Amino acid sequence: MSANRPTGQQQTGTYDSAFLKACRREPVPHTPVWFMRQAGRSLPEYRKVREGTAMLESCMMPELVTEITLQPVRRHGVDAAIYFSDIVVPLKAIGIDLDIKPGVGPVVEQPVRTRADLERLRPLTPDDVPYVTEAVRMLVGELGTTPLIGFAGAPFTLASYLVEGGPSRNHEHTKAMMYGDPQLWADLLDRLAVITSAFLKVQIDAGASAVQLFDSWVGALAPADYRRSVLPASAKVFEAVSGYGVPRIHFGVGTGELLGLMGEAGADVVGVDWRVPLDEAAGRVGAGKALQGNIDPAVLFAPREAVEAKAREVLDAAAGLEGHVFNLGHGVLPNTDPAALTRLVEYVHEQTAR
Questions:
Q1: Of 4, 161, 274, 293, which residue is the least packed, with the fewest Cβ within 10 Å?
Q2: Is 86 among the catalytic positions?
Q3: Catalytic residue at 312?
Q4: How far apart are the C-alpha atoms of 224 and 91, rounded to whole Å?
Q5: Per residue in 250-267, pLDDT tens?
């Protein structure tokens, strides 16, 4: 397998796609577009196929995952698909007692608070997630030249769910462990890095053309704490998949102060939320990285002219970048009009056609 041109990408014809070219900071026919959470609650066809099926259950049904992942590609004409899953799927697969409660999010029955609790976090193997391998292979066959992005939660965000027992505004238990027992914290994140790496490898081995690591909650940390207590584990994940030659994307929310460190962790593409203009973000991240982002998801509720004006601002700020993937600064909001997303894809493609 070539480190520069993975076999799977050659077979599917995705290597020369606009999305992968942008990730590699190569010239593109147009700025590629995809949206975080493009597959999901904003689409009526998604709500219809998910009806009566619990979230975690749906993530383990390959035909359903395939259909849900393909829906926004069909509807919006986006330049990449994102594998439909949830960040807690690998934790569930290794036996952690958790559930995704509607309106709340992932809830862990027994939070991880002691060294003895670490023993529940065994390594993940491909045999734990056969449904992922099957779904990715089905998707690659259906998508043709459209790349599939693999998906996983970053060690810090997974740890915060495990330690808090669910979503948290202040992350008090998480930070108490991080500051009060740094060795236990480091060991917890290291175990999660191994699990996350294995989960991404399963997706790449099955044919994913790129991977994105979501660190949804890491914006709660100061840069010094990130460098000391988070960066080593995130870097371990990126290093573990570096030999595949697929682009690695790193994204977090509220991470303007962390952008340089997130790039340092080893990503090829750094996701930027809407709080920092892309030209300024480029200076923080430094040379040698593509950027992804970064229109505010709430802008999509404004009239078409306002959406296009904000999209123009993003494109202008990205004009000097080596590589740019157009995206939202966070996920699609549930009540977004799907037509607004379709129009935004068309607008970006038209405005950037070369």
A1: 4
A2: yes
A3: no
A4: 28
A5: 999 999 999 999 999 999
